[in-house]
Design a protein that fits this description.
By secondary structure, this protein is an alpha+beta fold. The chain is built from three helices and eight strands; from the N terminus they run αβααβββββββ. It has a two-stranded antiparallel sheet with strand order 1-2. The model has no long low-confidence stretch (mean pLDDT 85).
Length: 133
């Protein structure tokens, strides 16, 4: 959902730039709620967003999407790890619960290196392959 919201906001910024509109792009609470809705955010979370938006900015506030997302990077962070992915490749990142534990999965295309050392994946053909780092 986060990737979808970011992608939609980045698309709005790109479209605005392509239109060469001299006015800065700003979004109302309603426009942001629509982005959340179309990204699959549940109604209770959209309602909480609307309430918090009004408390923080006022009902008629307009926000620049440039202050909401960084269109140059997608950053995934845990207390111990930070991963940066180009926003257009957010499709490579996935979250899953496996045996009750949350994981961040990154599809490995074209090769993997850790500190400049290539990592090789090994394992059986029908089993998830892994290698220790």
């Amino acid at each position: 959902m986060v990737q979808s919201v970011q992608g939609q906001l980045v698309n709005l910024m790109r479209e605005h730039k392509e239109e060469k509109n001299p006015e800065p792009l700003v979004l109302s609470k309603g426009a942001l709620e629509q982005v959340l809705s179309s990204s699959g955010v549940e109604e209770e979370h959209r309602e909480a967003f609307a309430q918090r938006f009004q408390e923080e900015f006022g009902a008629n506030a307009r926000l620049s999407p440039q202050n909401l997302v960084d269109k140059r990077k997608l950053e995934v962070r845990t207390p111990d790890v930070k991963i940066q992915v180009p926003p257009e490749r957010g499709d490579l990142v996935e979250t899953r619960i496996i045996d009750g534990v949350g994981y961040i999965l990154i599809r490995a295309e074209g090769g993997v290196e850790v500190n400049g050392v290539p990592v090789r994946f090994t394992g059986e053909a029908n089993r998830p392959q892994e290698d220790t780092v």
